[in-house]
Amino acid sequence: MELDKANGNCKWYDAVQLELSQICKYEVFEDRGKAIFGKNRKVENAPECYHKIRFRLVFAVKHDGWHKARLVADGHLAPEPVESIYSGFVSLRSLRIAIFLGKPNDLELWGTDIGNAYLEATTDELLFIAAGHEFGELEGHILVFQKALYGLRSSGLKWSQRLHDIMTDMGFVPSKEDPCIWMCKSDCGTKYEYVAIYVDNLLTALKPPKSFIDELKTKFGLKIKGDGPLEHHLGCDYFIDPDGTLVACPKRYIEKIIETYKKLFNEEPKPVRSPLEKNDHPEHDNSELVSSDLIDKDMTMIGQLQWVISLGRFDILSHVVSMSRFRLVPREGHIK
User: Fold this and answer.
1) How do residues 284-328 score in pLDDT, each as one tens digit?
2) Which one in 107, 134, 305, 335 has a CA-CA gap of 20 to 30 Å to 57?
3) Long-range contacts for 100-104 (Cβ within 8 Å, ≥24 apart)?
4) Is the peptide bond before 208 cis (omega within 30 degrees of 0)?
5) How far is residue 211 from each of residues 26, 57, 67, 162, 199, measured CA to CA in Å?
């Protein structure tokens, strides 16, 4: 790859090979043989009733420097489904309630992540791709989708249904208030235990939690990552104060926001005593409109600040909401 040549390493090549090895391991595609291309690269021997879509590789550098590649389907090219494909995730309000109930009931709070979650589910979308050079010997072959690859319209729903079957099999029932909070009675029968699900991130209030995690691994074959006592979940840090109080604080996420600011604006953020200057009225700003590049940067920062509010920094709510009104067409004064 050109970027690897420029950087003098093979990190992106290795990332692509790792992703394709996972695609092969999870049997995401079924090989239907060599494609016969006609005019405008139309596949003449396409499977009956199947639609051809494209795919792409998405690249990202994680916060720890890890280079990651992800194969993503261009699901928007598929026919629109007739039935609903909605799948939910736990609200932060419900998540906090589960934590609040777990602590005084002497339940152990753990967090975990399910790797390659969508690939654990099958798909019933009748779609195929013509394999590119990334697939090596399979280049030019018709590959029919078998698993819920990222990007397909129904993948979120299919994974949600797969996890629903797993949780039901383990004796849990969804809460009537929030179906992404799963409950079951403890062995002693005097209290409930909880699992909060945010797509592929699980927060558990169980005793003991390790047996639950082990069952996900051994019985259902899920790839579990980063399981252990609750320390960091959905961008928020958790720790115990000296007096035994459980504290939720988005410290690392705020550090990430600061690093993002430095990369976007090539400067250190200015220390201030208040998010907005005293008597400041951004709605009265008549300075010049900013370029599209600065609009993107402004929206990035506003989005991160909105999430940190959700994690507990309610003190900046009114200030961020005030600036969010101008995020589509900000002015120079708003950026400053």
Assistant:
1) 888 889 888 889 989 999 999 999 999 999 989 988 998 898 888
2) 305
3) 101/192, 101/194, 101/205, 102/194, 102/205, 103/246
4) yes
5) 25, 36, 32, 20, 21
d(CA 325, CA 285): 13
**Side chain identity, residue 161:** Q
Q: Cβ atoms within 10 A of the Cβ of 335, count?
A: 16
Structure tokens at 46: 């396409």
pTM for the model stands at 0.87
Q: What is the per-residue burial (b if ≥16 Cβ within 10 Å, else e) of 262-301?
A: eeeeeeeeeeeeebeeeeeebeeeeeeebeeebbebbebb
Bridge partners, 206 (sequence order): 108
Could you give the CA distance from residue 222 to residue 49 in angstroms, rounded to a whole number? 32
Q: How far is CA 221 from the centre of its chain?
A: 21
